[in-house]
Amino acid sequence: MSQPVLSKSSEDYLEAIGHLVRLHGTAQISDIAAFLKVKKPSVTSAVRLLAELKLVEYTQYAPVRLTAKGKKMADRIIHAHETLQKFLHDVAGLSLERSDAAACLIEHVLTPEEIERIGRVTRCLEAHPCMKGELQGEE
Hints:
The protein is an all-alpha fold. It has 7 helices and 2 strands; from the N terminus they run H-H-H-E-E-H-H-H-H. The protein has 2 domains: 8-72, Winged helix-like DNA-binding domain superfamily/Winged helix DNA-binding domain (Arc Repressor Mutant, subunit A, Orthogonal Bundle), CATH 1.10.10.10; 76-135, Iron dependent repressor, metal binding and dimerisation domain (Diphtheria Toxin Repressor, domain 2). Helices cover 69% and strands 3% of the residues. It has a two-stranded antiparallel sheet with strand order 1-2. A hairpin with a 7-residue loop joins strand 1 and strand 2 (65-66). The N and C termini lie far apart (50 Å). GO terms for molecular function: DNA binding; DNA-binding transcription factor activity; protein dimerization activity; transition metal ion binding. Keywords: DNA-binding, Transcription, Transcription regulation. In the presence of manganese, represses expression of mntH and mntS. Up-regulates expression of mntP. It holds the Pfam family Fe_dep_repr_C.
């Protein structure tokens, strides 16, 4: 069964739910709203859509829970974000804040295979620090 194609916004909600579940075991609507800096009604609408797609389980006043399919997608999005942020910060030399913002934009357009290639480049450069320094303009 193929995974549904999500909008950038839906992926952001799924990613936020994934982070909150990792941190707290559950994700409340109010916590998701605070995490994404959006209003609770926006979260409720997005969560209902994710529930229709069978990515989360949601009932009013209860925590949002990831389904197995939702967890798999959330983990993929989080992995992509972390891989890109690490590359942009550690290899390209961007600040943590800028690398986080850029990773959030890029994670939605690259395939898992492309993310894996970027991860391999990052790991290779970690193993060969002199090459990393040259890329960042250090001597």
